[in-house]
Amino acid sequence: ARYDRYGPEGVFGSQPGGMGGFGFEGGLGDIFEAFFGQMGGNGGRRRGPQAGADAEVRLDLEFAEAVFGCHKEISVRLPATCNGCAGRGTAPGTDPETCVDCQGAGELRRVRQSILGQVMTASPCGRCQGTGSTIASPCPTCRGDGRTVGASTLVVDVPAGVEDGSTMRLVGRGAAGFRGGPSGTLYVHLGVERDTRFERHGDDLHTVATVSLAQAALGTTVDIPTLEGDEPIEIARGTQPGTVVRLRQRGVTHLRGRGRGDLHVHVAVDVPTELDEESESILRSLAAHRSEDVAPPHTGLLSRLRSRR
Q1: What is the pTM of this model?
Q2: pLDDT at position 257
Protein backbone atom coordinates (compact mmCIF):
# COMPACT_ATOMS: atom_id res chain seq x y z
CA ALA A 1 0.00 0.00 0.00
CA ARG A 2 1.10 3.57 -0.51
CA TYR A 3 -0.35 6.81 0.67
CA ASP A 4 -0.92 9.88 -1.40
CA ARG A 5 -2.95 13.06 -1.58
CA TYR A 6 -6.48 12.91 -2.94
CA GLY A 7 -8.93 15.47 -4.17
CA PRO A 8 -12.33 16.08 -2.53
CA GLU A 9 -14.16 13.40 -4.51
CA GLY A 10 -11.79 10.47 -4.15
CA VAL A 11 -9.70 10.96 -7.29
CA PHE A 12 -6.10 12.00 -7.40
CA GLY A 13 -5.80 15.70 -6.60
CA SER A 14 -2.95 18.10 -7.14
CA GLN A 15 0.17 17.43 -5.17
CA PRO A 16 1.58 20.13 -2.90
CA GLY A 17 3.57 22.45 -5.09
CA GLY A 18 1.04 22.42 -7.94
CA MET A 19 -0.55 25.58 -9.31
CA GLY A 20 2.75 26.66 -10.84
CA GLY A 21 4.79 25.92 -7.72
CA PHE A 22 2.83 28.04 -5.23
CA GLY A 23 1.90 24.98 -3.14
CA PHE A 24 -1.72 25.99 -2.45
CA GLU A 25 -3.98 23.08 -1.46
CA GLY A 26 -7.20 24.86 -0.56
CA GLY A 27 -8.24 26.27 -3.93
CA LEU A 28 -9.07 29.87 -4.81
CA GLY A 29 -9.97 30.73 -1.21
CA ASP A 30 -6.41 30.19 -0.06
CA ILE A 31 -5.00 32.05 -3.06
CA PHE A 32 -7.09 35.14 -2.32
CA GLU A 33 -6.28 34.83 1.34
CA ALA A 34 -2.57 34.70 0.62
CA PHE A 35 -2.61 37.78 -1.64
CA PHE A 36 -5.54 39.80 -0.33
CA GLY A 37 -6.49 38.06 2.90
CA GLN A 38 -6.82 39.89 6.17
CA MET A 39 -7.93 43.09 4.39
CA GLY A 40 -10.33 45.00 6.53
CA GLY A 41 -8.76 43.73 9.75
CA ASN A 42 -10.45 40.30 9.84
CA GLY A 43 -8.58 37.85 12.02
CA GLY A 44 -6.78 34.82 10.55
CA ARG A 45 -7.72 31.26 11.25
CA ARG A 46 -5.77 29.07 13.62
CA ARG A 47 -4.15 26.23 11.75
CA GLY A 48 -4.04 23.52 14.43
CA PRO A 49 -2.97 19.90 13.89
CA GLN A 50 -2.52 18.85 10.29
CA ALA A 51 -4.71 16.07 8.91
CA GLY A 52 -3.03 12.92 7.66
CA ALA A 53 -2.71 12.07 3.99
CA ASP A 54 -5.21 9.87 2.21
CA ALA A 55 -4.06 6.41 1.18
CA GLU A 56 -4.96 3.77 -1.39
CA VAL A 57 -4.61 0.00 -1.57
CA ARG A 58 -5.79 -2.71 -3.96
CA LEU A 59 -7.87 -5.67 -2.77
CA ASP A 60 -8.42 -8.70 -5.01
CA LEU A 61 -11.64 -10.70 -4.61
CA GLU A 62 -12.92 -13.98 -5.94
CA PHE A 63 -16.09 -13.78 -8.01
CA ALA A 64 -18.26 -15.30 -5.27
CA GLU A 65 -16.80 -12.93 -2.66
CA ALA A 66 -17.86 -9.93 -4.73
CA VAL A 67 -21.32 -11.36 -5.38
CA PHE A 68 -22.20 -12.33 -1.80
CA GLY A 69 -19.92 -9.99 0.20
CA CYS A 70 -17.17 -10.97 2.59
CA HIS A 71 -14.75 -9.87 5.30
CA LYS A 72 -11.19 -9.51 4.04
CA GLU A 73 -7.94 -8.67 5.78
CA ILE A 74 -5.56 -6.22 4.14
CA SER A 75 -2.08 -5.20 5.21
CA VAL A 76 -1.07 -1.55 4.95
CA ARG A 77 2.06 0.35 5.90
CA LEU A 78 1.13 3.86 6.95
CA PRO A 79 1.99 6.50 9.55
CA ALA A 80 0.11 5.63 12.75
CA THR A 81 -0.35 7.48 16.03
CA CYS A 82 2.73 7.11 18.21
CA ASN A 83 2.07 4.90 21.23
CA GLY A 84 4.83 6.58 23.24
CA CYS A 85 3.22 10.02 23.29
CA ALA A 86 -0.34 9.30 22.08
CA GLY A 87 0.27 11.58 19.11
CA ARG A 88 1.32 14.66 21.11
CA GLY A 89 4.94 14.49 20.01
CA THR A 90 6.26 15.41 23.46
CA ALA A 91 8.40 13.44 25.86
CA PRO A 92 6.62 12.01 28.93
CA GLY A 93 5.85 14.72 31.50
CA THR A 94 6.28 17.63 29.06
CA ASP A 95 3.85 19.76 27.08
CA PRO A 96 4.03 21.69 23.81
CA GLU A 97 4.98 25.36 24.07
CA THR A 98 3.41 28.30 22.29
CA CYS A 99 5.37 29.19 19.17
CA VAL A 100 7.39 32.35 19.73
CA ASP A 101 7.23 33.35 16.07
CA CYS A 102 3.48 33.20 15.40
CA GLN A 103 2.31 33.42 19.03
CA GLY A 104 0.13 30.35 18.59
CA ALA A 105 -1.67 31.55 15.46
CA GLY A 106 0.00 28.97 13.25
CA GLU A 107 0.65 31.55 10.54
CA LEU A 108 2.76 34.63 9.94
CA ARG A 109 1.21 37.85 8.62
CA ARG A 110 3.01 40.51 6.65
CA VAL A 111 1.84 43.95 5.50
CA ARG A 112 3.10 45.38 2.24
CA GLN A 113 2.26 48.28 0.02
CA SER A 114 0.65 47.70 -3.37
CA ILE A 115 -1.31 49.66 -5.94
CA LEU A 116 -4.39 48.76 -3.91
CA GLY A 117 -2.90 50.17 -0.73
CA GLN A 118 -1.80 48.11 2.24
CA VAL A 119 -2.21 44.36 1.69
CA MET A 120 -1.80 41.79 4.44
CA THR A 121 -0.61 38.32 3.47
CA ALA A 122 -0.49 35.21 5.63
CA SER A 123 1.60 32.05 5.32
CA PRO A 124 2.06 28.99 7.55
CA CYS A 125 4.60 29.48 10.29
CA GLY A 126 7.85 27.72 9.45
CA ARG A 127 8.95 27.23 13.05
CA CYS A 128 5.86 25.30 14.21
CA GLN A 129 4.75 24.07 10.77
CA GLY A 130 1.37 25.73 11.19
CA THR A 131 0.45 24.04 14.47
CA GLY A 132 0.90 27.11 16.70
CA SER A 133 3.14 25.26 19.14
CA THR A 134 6.68 23.92 19.34
CA ILE A 135 8.16 20.99 21.24
CA ALA A 136 11.20 21.56 23.39
CA SER A 137 11.44 17.93 24.54
CA PRO A 138 10.34 15.66 21.68
CA CYS A 139 9.16 12.12 22.18
CA PRO A 140 12.12 9.73 21.81
CA THR A 141 9.99 7.27 19.84
CA CYS A 142 8.60 9.53 17.11
CA ARG A 143 11.06 12.45 17.55
CA GLY A 144 8.24 14.96 17.92
CA ASP A 145 6.22 13.95 14.86
CA GLY A 146 3.46 12.29 16.88
CA ARG A 147 3.36 9.25 14.61
CA THR A 148 5.42 6.30 13.50
CA VAL A 149 5.37 4.30 10.28
CA GLY A 150 4.54 0.63 10.60
CA ALA A 151 2.59 -2.24 9.07
CA SER A 152 -0.90 -3.00 10.31
CA THR A 153 -3.75 -5.33 9.36
CA LEU A 154 -7.28 -4.07 8.74
CA VAL A 155 -10.49 -6.05 8.30
CA VAL A 156 -12.56 -4.70 5.42
CA ASP A 157 -16.28 -5.42 5.26
CA VAL A 158 -16.94 -5.84 1.53
CA PRO A 159 -20.66 -5.45 0.75
CA ALA A 160 -22.42 -7.91 -1.55
CA GLY A 161 -22.69 -6.89 -5.19
CA VAL A 162 -19.48 -4.89 -5.69
CA GLU A 163 -17.99 -4.82 -9.19
CA ASP A 164 -14.50 -4.97 -10.59
CA GLY A 165 -12.90 -1.52 -10.52
CA SER A 166 -15.13 -0.10 -7.78
CA THR A 167 -13.63 1.73 -4.80
CA MET A 168 -14.50 1.64 -1.11
CA ARG A 169 -13.93 4.82 0.94
CA LEU A 170 -12.90 4.24 4.56
CA VAL A 171 -12.85 7.55 6.43
CA GLY A 172 -10.26 7.83 9.19
CA ARG A 173 -8.32 4.73 8.10
CA GLY A 174 -5.60 6.54 6.15
CA ALA A 175 -2.34 8.02 7.44
CA ALA A 176 -2.41 9.47 10.97
CA GLY A 177 -2.23 13.25 11.20
CA PHE A 178 0.82 15.24 12.30
CA ARG A 179 0.93 15.65 16.11
CA GLY A 180 -2.54 14.38 16.85
CA GLY A 181 -4.23 15.59 13.66
CA PRO A 182 -7.11 13.55 12.22
CA SER A 183 -6.32 10.56 10.05
CA GLY A 184 -6.90 10.64 6.32
CA THR A 185 -9.14 8.40 4.23
CA LEU A 186 -8.22 4.95 2.93
CA TYR A 187 -9.42 4.17 -0.58
CA VAL A 188 -9.68 0.43 -1.29
CA HIS A 189 -9.70 -0.33 -5.02
CA LEU A 190 -11.40 -3.66 -5.72
CA GLY A 191 -10.33 -6.15 -8.34
CA VAL A 192 -12.73 -9.05 -9.01
CA GLU A 193 -11.57 -12.28 -10.65
CA ARG A 194 -13.60 -13.51 -13.60
CA ASP A 195 -15.69 -16.67 -13.46
CA THR A 196 -15.46 -18.56 -16.74
CA ARG A 197 -19.00 -19.88 -16.29
CA PHE A 198 -20.67 -16.47 -16.22
CA GLU A 199 -20.61 -13.10 -17.89
CA ARG A 200 -21.80 -10.27 -15.67
CA HIS A 201 -23.87 -7.33 -16.86
CA GLY A 202 -24.79 -5.18 -13.90
CA ASP A 203 -26.53 -7.49 -11.44
CA ASP A 204 -27.58 -10.00 -14.11
CA LEU A 205 -25.52 -13.04 -15.07
CA HIS A 206 -25.37 -14.77 -18.45
CA THR A 207 -24.32 -18.34 -19.21
CA VAL A 208 -24.53 -20.75 -22.15
CA ALA A 209 -26.22 -24.16 -22.25
CA THR A 210 -25.22 -26.27 -25.26
CA VAL A 211 -27.58 -28.99 -26.51
CA SER A 212 -27.50 -31.31 -29.50
CA LEU A 213 -29.63 -31.00 -32.60
CA ALA A 214 -31.86 -33.85 -31.45
CA GLN A 215 -32.20 -32.45 -27.94
CA ALA A 216 -33.26 -29.05 -29.28
CA ALA A 217 -35.83 -30.69 -31.57
CA LEU A 218 -37.25 -33.22 -29.10
CA GLY A 219 -36.68 -31.40 -25.80
CA THR A 220 -34.55 -32.40 -22.83
CA THR A 221 -33.40 -31.43 -19.34
CA VAL A 222 -29.87 -30.12 -18.77
CA ASP A 223 -27.93 -29.02 -15.71
CA ILE A 224 -26.69 -25.43 -15.84
CA PRO A 225 -24.32 -23.71 -13.38
CA THR A 226 -25.67 -21.22 -10.86
CA LEU A 227 -23.98 -19.41 -7.98
CA GLU A 228 -25.43 -22.00 -5.61
CA GLY A 229 -24.46 -25.01 -7.72
CA ASP A 230 -25.82 -26.88 -10.75
CA GLU A 231 -29.55 -26.63 -11.35
CA PRO A 232 -31.66 -28.56 -13.91
CA ILE A 233 -33.66 -26.58 -16.46
CA GLU A 234 -36.07 -27.82 -19.10
CA ILE A 235 -35.27 -27.28 -22.77
CA ALA A 236 -38.63 -27.21 -24.51
CA ARG A 237 -39.35 -29.27 -27.61
CA GLY A 238 -38.42 -27.28 -30.73
CA THR A 239 -36.11 -24.85 -28.94
CA GLN A 240 -34.34 -22.60 -31.44
CA PRO A 241 -30.66 -21.54 -31.28
CA GLY A 242 -30.32 -18.31 -29.31
CA THR A 243 -33.34 -18.95 -27.11
CA VAL A 244 -32.87 -17.41 -23.65
CA VAL A 245 -34.23 -19.04 -20.51
CA ARG A 246 -34.50 -16.60 -17.60
CA LEU A 247 -34.03 -17.75 -14.01
CA ARG A 248 -35.15 -15.04 -11.64
CA GLN A 249 -33.22 -14.18 -8.47
CA ARG A 250 -30.19 -16.29 -9.50
CA GLY A 251 -27.94 -13.34 -10.25
CA VAL A 252 -25.88 -10.89 -8.21
CA THR A 253 -27.10 -9.38 -4.95
CA HIS A 254 -28.16 -5.76 -5.42
CA LEU A 255 -25.54 -3.46 -3.89
CA ARG A 256 -28.11 -0.85 -2.87
CA GLY A 257 -31.38 -2.54 -2.04
CA ARG A 258 -32.84 -5.98 -1.55
CA GLY A 259 -33.06 -8.90 -3.94
CA ARG A 260 -30.83 -10.19 -6.69
CA GLY A 261 -30.50 -9.98 -10.43
CA ASP A 262 -31.44 -12.77 -12.83
CA LEU A 263 -29.53 -15.55 -14.57
CA HIS A 264 -30.00 -15.65 -18.35
CA VAL A 265 -29.31 -19.03 -19.96
CA HIS A 266 -28.53 -18.74 -23.69
CA VAL A 267 -29.27 -21.99 -25.53
CA ALA A 268 -26.71 -22.98 -28.17
CA VAL A 269 -27.39 -25.86 -30.57
CA ASP A 270 -24.37 -28.01 -31.38
CA VAL A 271 -24.51 -28.88 -35.09
CA PRO A 272 -22.14 -31.78 -35.86
CA THR A 273 -19.38 -31.04 -38.34
CA GLU A 274 -18.40 -34.69 -38.89
CA LEU A 275 -20.95 -37.49 -39.44
CA ASP A 276 -20.47 -41.23 -39.78
CA GLU A 277 -22.37 -43.05 -42.53
CA GLU A 278 -25.22 -44.15 -40.28
CA SER A 279 -25.80 -40.67 -38.82
CA GLU A 280 -25.70 -39.10 -42.28
CA SER A 281 -28.15 -41.68 -43.60
CA ILE A 282 -30.59 -40.92 -40.77
CA LEU A 283 -30.40 -37.17 -41.41
CA ARG A 284 -30.90 -37.65 -45.15
CA SER A 285 -33.93 -39.82 -44.46
CA LEU A 286 -35.32 -37.10 -42.19
CA ALA A 287 -34.70 -34.43 -44.84
CA ALA A 288 -36.43 -36.56 -47.46
CA HIS A 289 -39.37 -37.17 -45.15
CA ARG A 290 -39.72 -33.39 -44.61
CA SER A 291 -39.17 -32.63 -48.29
CA GLU A 292 -36.10 -30.53 -47.52
CA ASP A 293 -33.39 -29.88 -50.06
CA VAL A 294 -29.93 -30.88 -48.87
CA ALA A 295 -26.52 -31.12 -50.52
CA PRO A 296 -25.72 -34.42 -52.26
CA PRO A 297 -23.39 -36.90 -50.59
CA HIS A 298 -19.74 -35.90 -50.62
CA THR A 299 -17.87 -37.81 -53.35
CA GLY A 300 -14.33 -36.82 -52.51
CA LEU A 301 -11.35 -39.06 -51.83
CA LEU A 302 -12.26 -39.59 -48.17
CA SER A 303 -15.75 -40.77 -49.09
CA ARG A 304 -14.39 -43.27 -51.63
CA LEU A 305 -11.91 -44.58 -49.05
CA ARG A 306 -14.69 -45.02 -46.53
CA SER A 307 -16.85 -46.89 -49.01
CA ARG A 308 -14.04 -49.40 -49.67
CA ARG A 309 -13.64 -50.30 -45.98
Answers
A1: 0.70
A2: 78
